[in-house]
Amino acid sequence: MMKMKASLKGKCVSDKGTASGSIAINTAGDANLRATFTDSTISLSKPGSFTIDYNVPKNDFRFQFMNTMRVFKKPVIFSYTHFYRANRTALDGSMCFNTANRVSASCDSNGGAKVRYVYKHKDDSFGGCREGFVSDRVQGSCG
Asked: Could you give the CA distance from residue 116 to residue 80 in angstroms, rounded to a whole number?
């Protein structure tokens, strides 16, 4: 027997003329769906899997698909995002080797690309050091 749980939340602020609401449906299996409604956006998502946003005034869709896989027993997180009206696509990925070392990369259909390595020093007061490569320029920051 499959159990299903649903919840509904809403909010309306009359002096600002705004309203929002959300519906969450959780099942005993793999499906967890969440729909969110605001004045200008309607969203449908399955956390960690996909998100579809519809912007009502712009009549525009945004699709995002996410997935995690393991490489050398380390999680690699991927995200694919497409903006329909702008006809723009972005691809992001990151991999954590351990708590101190992380690599991330992103690129989009406009030709932009970033690769970033983040090292966090043991002494957290240092804040870590980040080196990034954006297109053909090297950017670095420590803080």
From this structure: 18
Distance CA 6, CA 28 (A): 12
pTM, whole model, 2 decimals? 0.66
Distance separating alpha carbons of residues 108 and 106, to the nearest angstrom: 7
pLDDT in tens, 96-114: 888 788 888 898 888 888 8
Strand partners, 18: 13
Q: Cα(42)–Cα(52) distance, rounded to whole angstroms? A: 8
Cβ distance 23 to 34 under 8 Å?
yes
Amino acid symbol at 121: H
pLDDT in tens, 55-79: 888 888 999 999 999 988 888 999 9
Beta bridge partners of 89: 82
